[in-house]
Design goal:
Helices cover 14% and strands 47% of the residues. By secondary structure, it is mainly beta.
Length: 258
């Protein structure tokens, strides 16, 4: 395993989440790490665990599964389970956006004090495309998202499932006047909270032709599987709704500045 490769590091940006709701129902979802540089110390960052609000709404008890760190590398057999309840939900709640960010520095500090260190990689603000980059994206772009569809993952290696698809509506349009766009991909429950990227290795197309090099852009957070409902028959359309990166960063900045 080459941990320095971007694609390998992306595997460690996410964690599985298992939840038991107050009504006794059980579900799963995806969380991912997002870190802000500390305004008071450029050498420090503020780590958050981001997921959809609906993943943890009405939670009675739940579990995050982290992977241990051994000499700066992931230790696949060292699973670190952190239990949580409704108190994990922070006080900043925007009912207009299906996101929640959990400050996890206290959790990490407590784990380290008990001799447990978590291996992870974060999404950072500089991975978000600016307005010019968004406006210059093609209407159809290949996307990559990472998570735990139906709670599925490689439990032996503590590794998530990587899936690919295309933008079904342009990133630069707000689908149905919402701050989101659609992707055409295999989206199922459990993928909620997955980070969505444009990740190109070697080369990629632009309006000026083929650009040589790699590209990694954080586009937003997967929030919903689109269903077709006809009488009693319901079926997945292979479409997912993604909260765009502009709206995501607005929410996260509000949390950090709180």
């Amino acid at each position: 395993m080459n941990i320095d490769m971007i694609s390998t590091q992306l595997l460690y940006t996410t964690v599985p989440i298992w939840v038991e709701k107050e009504d006794g129902s059980q579900s799963s979802g995806t969380g991912f790490f997002f870190s802000f540089p500390d305004k008071n110390d450029n050498n420090m960052s503020i780590p958050l665990l981001v997921t959809n609000y609906h993943v943890v709404k009405d939670v009675d008890k739940g579990v995050f599964e982290f992977i241990g760190d051994k000499n700066g590398l992931p230790e696949r057999n060292n699973k670190i389970h952190v239990e949580f309840d409704h108190s994990i939900i922070n006080s900043i709640e925007d009912l207009n956006i299906d996101l929640i960010a959990i400050p996890i520095a206290p959790i990490m500090n407590e784990l380290e004090q008990s001799g447990k260190k978590v291996f992870f990689r974060s999404v950072f603000p500089d991975m978000l495309p600016n307005k010019d980059q968004i406006d210059n994206l093609a209407a159809i772009e290949e996307i990559t998202f990472i998570g735990y569809p139906s709670g599925l993952y490689d439990s032996y290696n503590s590794s998530p499932i990587v899936r690919r698809g295309i933008t079904a509506t342009p990133v630069w349009n707000n689908f149905n006047n919402e701050p989101c766009f659609l992707i055409d991909a295999g989206v199922y429950p459990g993928s909620s909270g997955s980070p969505v990227f444009i990740y190109n290795e070697g080369s990629y197309a632009t309006s000026n032709g083929i650009n040589i090099g790699s590209r990694l852009l954080f586009l937003g957070v997967l929030t919903e599987s689109i269903l077709r409902s006809e009488q009693l028959n319901r079926a997945y359309l292979g479409l997912g709704k993604v909260i765009n990166s502009i709206e995501t960063i607005k929410y996260l900045e509000k949390l950090v500045d709180y």
